[in-house]
Structure formats: structure tokens, C-alpha cells
Design brief:
Blueprint: E1 2-5, H1 14-20, E2 26-29, E3 39-43, E4 48-52, H2 54-61, E5 65-69, H3 70-75, E6 86-89, H4 91-100, E7 104-106
Parallel strand pairs: 1-2, 1-7, 2-5, 5-6
Antiparallel strand pairs: 3-4
Length: about 110
């Protein structure tokens, strides 16, 4: 099944979605949903470290592919902050992804 996430993970029950998905599923992030792909910033007095957020780590543990619409990433100025686990795609690649799946769930 293809899951599309349109809203920020901070304004929706993303844990319910994470509990629903399995290895056969794929996730595409659109609009404010791309915030799910944002790296967390951890700092101490000498270093700044960027790492995947808790939601994305749990999705990675499940072995689910995550895609983000490239235009939405660029529009939000997040290009340099997107996790390397997330594959950025074009609109035409998004169409191919939807055609690949029989079932679709908008979140």
C-alpha cells in the first residue's frame, strides 16, 4: 500500500500510521508532510550533529521506503536538512509510484 502524508508529523497522529505500516508498504511525503524527513539538530558546545528524527527512525526499522516530493522540499527550503534515507522524487516519479500500488491511503 502507498501511504501519502500531507500534514506535519507534529500535527497528526503519526504513531498510528507507523503502527499500520509494514515492509511491503511505501510512504510518499507531500506538502507539509515532508517535515517527517527533517533531520533533528543536536548540539553541544563544540559540535552540531544532524540525525534522523524519532518517527523516521521507527519507519526505517520497519524497512519501509520513504519518498519526498522534491518540489515540496525545495519550496520549504529543506534541501540540506532531508534525511539520506528519504528519496526525493519528481511529479512523474510520484505518478509511477501511485500506479505501482493497488491501494492508496492519504494521511
Amino acid at each position: 500500500m502507498l501511504f501519502s502524508i500531507f500534514t506535519s508529523p507534529y500535527y497528526t497522529d503519526i504513531w498510528s500510521l507507523i503502527n499500520l505500516i509494514n515492509k511491503k508498504d511505501e510512504i510518499v511525503l507531500l506538502q507539509n508532510g515532508i517535515l517527517l524527513a527533517h533531520k533533528s539538530i543536536c548540539t553541544n558546545y563544540t559540535n552540531t550533529i544532524y540525525r534522523d528524527n524519532i518517527y523516521l527512525n521507527r519507519i526505517k526499522e520497519k524497512g519501509v521506503n520513504v519518498f519526498a516530493l522534491k518540489d515540496d522540499v525545495i519550496a520549504r527550503g529543506m534541501t540540506q536538512f532531508i534525511s539520506s534515507h528519504v528519496i526525493q522524487i519528481t511529479y512523474s516519479e510520484f505518478v509511477k509510484l501511485t500506479a505501482k500500488h493497488q491501494h492508496y491511503f492519504a494521511w
